[in-house]
Every structure is written in structure tokens, then in C-alpha cells.
Write a structure and sequence with these properties.
single chain, alpha+beta, Rossmann fold, Dna Ligase, domain 1, D-amino Acid Aminotransferase, Chain A, domain 1, five-stranded mixed β-sheet, 11 helices, binds adenosine monophosphate
Length: about 400
């Protein structure tokens, strides 16, 4: 039996463990902060000896790219199944990630490393007033980011000069992401591009598949394939992009399963968690089919409600975490055979129950309405290409 160890004990590893069990792969999770092991989907942590190095595992993977304690990664450096050291070194720091993309000739928003206010002024001189500052490491879900729109820019007091990048604020039409997987032979498969909506830097909903301009899927796949090839990466990777004037600019890469791929649990023939395990365990990397139109809605800072289990055409994924404001606690995948059906299901959800800020559901509705062209489904701008892709 193939054995996989995940560094990290959050919901992504848990969903990987559930997928792995369907494939006969043993996947356990290491809680690096407490140095405990969670076997399969078990919630019960088992303490580990301090010199434990997971020798029994064939492959070591991660569910996050930031490990504040470098010793955790160093502990696995000499593990023959841990191939991620390079990738994490390159991607976990925004400065290195942006430089890597520049070297590959893949477009991102203009940027520079910020040591002092002169750097901010220089970037403003090149790209205009609107800048976003980001901590080079450790920020996620909008944390460690600051907006600047001041002709006399200052480095925020909470930011660490030198450990910071500034980017041009992109006036994007929309945000999209591509999730793909690569195996050891270099074969790649991709899911369709999806559209994402963020609030305060945190993903609130994904609409899948996304509305595509001609050639956009192929362009995105080419970008992500080049990235994964350059890193000789194995597993699932997500590429988040801005679409600006029809052009894709990479915002961020995640060397792992990703929140914007959660829709695949209900909307694709193989979900991203299974695809990741397949890639790692050298199992067939079958091209995933999109089986349903899906809206993924994150449940943020809201207590569990059994009523979620009683909603039609909706599947709940609850992570079992302690409820805290602003924390991702679960997600709902609302689905339909067509976008019109999905729209109806979302409207029913909106009327019946509003667990999160209803603006989030409203935003998913707006995206679908825009895509369909007509809220009530009368045929203004239908999407033959996409509907056909789904029915095939
Ligand atoms: P990030 O942590 O880099 O993924 O950023 C979180 C969210 O903040 C993104 O999904 C965007 O909604 C927004 N954002 C980040 N960087 C920029 C940028 N350069 N221009 C416009 N919006 C941005």
C-alpha cells in the first residue's frame, strides 16, 4: 500500500485523506506545531517522538506553503519522498515567486522589493498611485497586505522593510484561477478556468466553469504547464490570475490543492484531492470531466447549521474547526446541470437561508447572471461552448 504523509493538519489534508482512502492509499497528516500524527481522517492526534522523520512514508506532501518554523521542512529534507524543498523555497516567498515568473516570461503585476519609501515612490512613478504592499512571507487570506494611494507613500508601521513587495493595483475585470496536476513523467491535466470573488482579500465564492474568451483556457494551461515543468513539480498546483483587458496576469501560485478547486468535489469526475493523490502515488492522471456547473461558497465565521444538510442540489463540507470570526469553517457546493439550473438553486438558497453575508451569494448570482446574460434564463447570450463541454 502506498503511504503518503501530509505536512499540515487542516481541512485540505483532511479532504486529501478522504480521497486517498477511496484509492487504497494510506494518507496521514502531521501537525507540525504539536508534532502529532493524525492517521487518515482520524481527529485524534498521536504524539510523535521528536526524532520522528516519517521514514515509513513513500511520499511527503504539504497542504500549505508557509511553515514559520523552518525546522519542520528541514526535518524532511533528507526524506527520499519529499521533493518539494525547491518549490517551497521558490514559491513561499513573494519576492522569489515574482522573480521566478519574470524569468519564465509569465506576466504578473509590476512589482519591486520595498526597503523604504523611496522604493514606493519609484514604483508609483512607473505605474501610478495605486499600490498594494504585501508581506513577502506568511500573509494569506488578505492578511499582511496594505493598500497605498498616497502621493507621499509611507511604509506601514506594521510592515517589515525589505521583507515586503509592492505591486501595481490591477484594475482587473475579474479574477480567475486554474488548477492543474502533473505527474513524475511530466504529464499534466487541467480543470477548466474558474471565476473567483474575494472580499477583504479572502475567497468568498468560485463559479465553475468560468466564462472563457477564445483561447484563454489554452493560454492558462500553457502558463501553468511551464511553471510546473520548470519546478519539476508533482501534484496539484493552483494559479490565481487577474484578467485585465482580456490578458491574464498571475497573482499567486499555490503548490497544493486550493480553495478555488473545492468545486471539483461536486462538479468534476475526479476532484482535486484525488487528483493530487493520483499524481503523487503515480496512479493514472485521467483528464477530469466537468460534470456540473457549480458555485462554491465559503462559510466564514459562521456556526454549523443542520439546515445546510436539507438544501437541494447543495453539498456541505464542514471542517470541524472552532468557530471564529473571519475563519473559513466549511464550504457549500451548490450545483446544477446547467448555469440556468445553478442560478435557480442559488436564488432558492438566497431566499431560504442566508448563513453568510448574503452579499456573497448575491455576488455568485451576479457573476452567473452576467455570464448567462439574462437572470431568468431567456436566451440572450447563451454559452453553447461551455454548456456543450459540460454535457459531453
Ligand atoms: P493575494 O493574497 O495576493 O492572493 O491577494 C488576495 C486578494 O487581494 C486577491 O485575490 C485580489 O482580490 C486582491 N489583490 C491582491 N493583489 C492585488 C493587486 N496587485 N491588484 C488588485 N488586487 C489585488
Amino acid at each position: 500500500m502506498t503511504r503518503v504523509l501530509v505536512l499540515g493538519s487542516g481541512q485540505l489534508g483532511l479532504m486529501m485523506a478522504a480521497a486517498a482512502s477511496r484509492l487504497g492509499v494510506q494518507l496521514d497528516r502531521l501537525d507540525p506545531e504539536n508534532w502529532t500524527l493524525l492517521r487518515g481522517t482520524s481527529p485524534t492526534p498521536e504524539p510523535l517522538p521528536s526524532d520522528w522523520r516519517g521514514e515509513a512514508y513513500d511520499h511527503v506532501t504539504v497542504e500549505r506553503e508557509h511553515f514559520p518554523d523552518r525546522a519542520v521542512l528541514q526535518a524532511f529534507d533528507s526524506h527520499p519522498g519529499f521533493k518539494l524543498a525547491n518549490t517551497l523555497h521558490c514559491l513561499a516567498d513573494r519576492r522569489r515567486q515574482k522573480s521566478f515568473l519574470d524569468e519564465l516570461g509569465i506576466a504578473t503585476s509590476e512589482w519591486l522589493t520595498v526597503r523604504d519609501r523611496a522604493d514606493l515612490a519609484e514604483l508609483q512613478h512607473r505605474v501610478g498611485l495605486g499600490l498594494v504592499l504585501k508581506a513577502a512571507t506568511g500573509g494569506y487570506d488578505g492578511r499582511g497586505q496594505w493598500r497605498i494611494n498616497d502621493p507621499q507613500p509611507e511604509v506601514p508601521a506594521e510592515a517589515v522593510p525589505g521583507q515586503l513587495i509592492a505591486e501595481r493595483v490591477v484594475a482587473f475585470e475579474r479574477e480567475v484561477s486554474l488548477v492543474g496536476a502533473r505527474n513524475r513523467r511530466g504529464d499534466c491535466v487541467f480543470y477548466p478556468l474558474v471565476e473567483n470573488e474575494h472580499r477583504h482579500g479572502m475567497l468568498v465564492c468560485t463559479i465553475a466553469p468560468g466564462e472563457l474568451a477564445p483561447g484563454q483556457q489554452a493560454e492558462a494551461e500553457d502558463m501553468l504547464r511551464r511553471i510546473m515543468d520548470a519546478l519539476d513539480y508533482v501534484g496539484v498546483m493552483a494559479m490565481e490570475c487577474f484578467e485585465e483587458s482580456g490578458r491574464l496576469l498571475v497573482n499567486e501560485l499555490a503548490p497544493r490543492v486550493h480553495n478555488s478547486g473545492h468545486w471539483t468535489q461536486e462538479g468534476a469526475s475526479i476532484d482535486q484531492f484525488e487528483m493530487h493523490v493520483r499524481a503523487l502515488a503515480n496512479l493514472p492522471l485521467t483528464v477530469p470531466e466537468t460534470t456540473r456547473n457549480t458555485a462554491m461558497l465559503n462559510l466564514v465565521g459562521t456556526a454549523f447549521d443542520p439546515a445546510w444538510l436539507d438544501l437541494g442540489k447543495t453539498r456541505l463540507h464542514w471542517y470541524g474547526k472552532e468557530v471564529r470570526p473571519g475563519r473559513k469553517l466549511g464550504h457549500l457546493n451548490v450545483y446544477g446541470a446547467t448555469n440556468h439550473a445553478l442560478l435557480d438553486n442559488l436564488e432558492a438558497l438566497m431566499k431560504r437561508w442566508d448563513p453568510m453575508d448574503p452579499a456573497d451569494i448575491q455576488r455568485a448570482l451576479d457573476i452567473l447572471k452576467r455570464d448567462i446574460g439574462d437572470a431568468r434564463g431567456e436566451t440572450q447570450h447563451t454559452r453553447p461552448e461551455r454548456e456543450q463541454r459540460i454535457s459531453n
